Amino acid sequence: xxxxxxxxxxxxxxxxxxxxxxxxxxxxxxxxxxxxxxxxxxxxxxxxxxxxxxxxxxxxxxxxxxxxxxxxxxxxxxxxxxxxxxxxxxxxxxxxxxxxxxxxxxxxxxxxxxxxxxxxxxxxxxxxxxxxxxxxxxxxxxxxxxxxxxxxxxxxxxxxxxxxxxxxxxxxxxxxxxxxxxxxxxxxxxxxxxxxxxxxxxxxxxxxxxxxxxxxxxxxxxxxxxxxxxxxxxxxxxxxxxxxxxxxxxxxxxxxxxxxxxxxxxxxxxxxxxxxxxxxxxxxxxxxxxxxxxxxxxxxx
Length: 301
Fold this sequence. Notes:
The protein has ten helices and 15 strands. It is α/β, with parallel strands linked by helices. It has a domain of about 200 residues: Rossmann fold (3-Layer(aba) Sandwich). Strands 1, 2, 3, 4, 5, 6, 7, 9 and 13 form a nine-stranded mixed sheet that branches. α1 packs across α5 and α2 runs parallel beside α3.
């Protein structure tokens, strides 16, 4: 079996490549950097430039599944121009792949797209499942809607389409976890805002395995990729502090302060969703990290 991954050198893509190789799945990947192109028996890189609609058609040779992970980081100030970049980095890339597949005969039958739980409205009490149709009024929700729409077009090519609504990915060196960890290590840790906002998290090992699970089982539809036991921002902060033997003596960081510092981006830390992983579990997926304490211990070992 061979898959094609976009964003293969990113946080999730790197771990996913390892899990694919562990499962005996060969990986082709698309990169905008010719310096990152490698040519190994089970790991081959191909150049593309989505903004110029350039792509190497050889990337699709013998590929049965495409995993589209590419997208500009959302952890950079949301200027008007950068908002456009965030959206286009997710939609134009998918559009180019769609156009290429439409115009060429390939063996691709399965398209899997990253997505986000930020499509769900902020709530401290409602448990969201994949059946929920309510959409938040934030920029992040808009991004997810357009992201998923760009994935749905592949159904026109008679492909199975899966959309992986990912929660906050916890990884040792990149993403949200180091940002949560650093102030606590320095003795300045504190819950953000009310601290009651939900943080639907997932360990980096598990999110990579989710994709392999979807590949192997040919799944289609929406799947929430979050651990079975979400935690609040306050609980996450206290769990990390406890493991580090640090006291949280500071009061919660007020929401208005975070809005002054981060602007519209403050929704990243002040809003949250309580998300169910039941559908994924019912499909046969088994999480390695069900609770946050063992996940934190693993990342800090």
